[in-house]
Amino acid sequence: MTKDTLAERGADTFAKCFGHTPRWAVAAPGRVNLIGEHTDYNDGFVLPIAIERYTVMVADRTTDRHVTLHSITTGETAELSVRSPVQRGEPAWSNYVRGVIAGFQRRGIKIPGFNAVIDSTVPYGGGVSSSAALEVAAATLLETIHGQPLDPIEKALLCQKAEHEFAGVPCGIMDQFTSILARPNHALLLDCRTRETTAVPMNDPAVTVLIINTNVRHKLADGEYAKRRAECEAAARTLDVASLRDATLKSLSAARARVAPIPFRRARHVISENERTDQAAKALRASDWFAMGALMYASHKSLRDDYEVSCKELDAVIEIARNLGPSKGVIGCRMTGAGFGGCAVCLVKTDAIQQVTRLIGDAYENQTGNQATIFSSGPAGGARVLS
Ligand code: GLA
Fold first, then answer.
1. What is the whole-number distance in angstroms between the Cα of residue 79 and the centre of ligand 1?
2. Average pLDDT rounded to a whole number, residues 212-239
3. Burial class of residue 223 in the structure, from the number of CB atoms within 10 Å of its CB (0-12 exposed, 13-18 middle, 19+ buried)
4. If exposure means fewest CB atoms within 10 Å of the residue's CB, which of 143, 170, 189, 351 is most exposed?
């Protein structure tokens, strides 16, 4: 479903709920990270694309200071007042929007009442940033209602803060930056320290990004995420650097006796992943798919063994893809996002997409008893107001 079709469906529901057509429609994409995993909160590098899966909000102002949010996905409605600083509340998904409203309020922007319908094709909880897509859609809507856009970086940081404070996830900046700043037919190389972004062309028609959702989500995800962050910070302190961005594999091995075994492995992942991300951006520019594939497999191995954020379902997908190999059209594959389930990202020769989809889907089901959801996506553009 395109974002325009989603917006039309949203508008129909809006008319049923509120008795008239909505005035605004905005869309924000999910993302898939090609490489550079668990590096963003270590001031490192990431290389994601925005995907052609969107969260759409259609809305209109009201004359009071009351906000009604209706989600087509869950069928639930959230009610809140914007007369005073917005707080956390129910249902859980509304916190992403509440957090963004609170961020605008904190900037001294007076939010009027509004009604909104939310719909989405970003798989929920699948590691492709359904939460960032909702935050960024909400921020784009509020900019539109207010009539003045925020600076894009300010906007991304506001959304990230909403996730920290209203959803309790100490995420990095990758997801929100991608959902805002991505360009069609480009990957986004983001330096998470300087926040400098470089659009890397990714428009070889012979290669397609395939996203394989394992449809499993292991419960430990959030707690383990915060734990990894803390382990990286501990390693950086022992190495006496501001963040792992400033460490090298050489400085890490020189400090081997001082760094405890777990932080050592976490640091080895982060440092080597930053190097792989730099190399991957170069490989992408050169359409060196062989190099790109090798970097993706190396990234997965490091995430599995050193960072310990994979799971048996993700490992199964990566092994299936690797065994198919270039002769069957597979270039490279790795887990993507925070891990512990969710999605794998796979680069596939475009003319083999159907065959690869079938072969991976069948083998995954045989091995794990679960069904994967598999879809392809070109690199999409960031959030926008729909006409
Ligand atoms: C989640 C977070 C991101 C990033 C990834 C792992 O998606 O939201 O900030 O840390 O995990 O790379």
1. 29
2. 91
3. exposed
4. 351
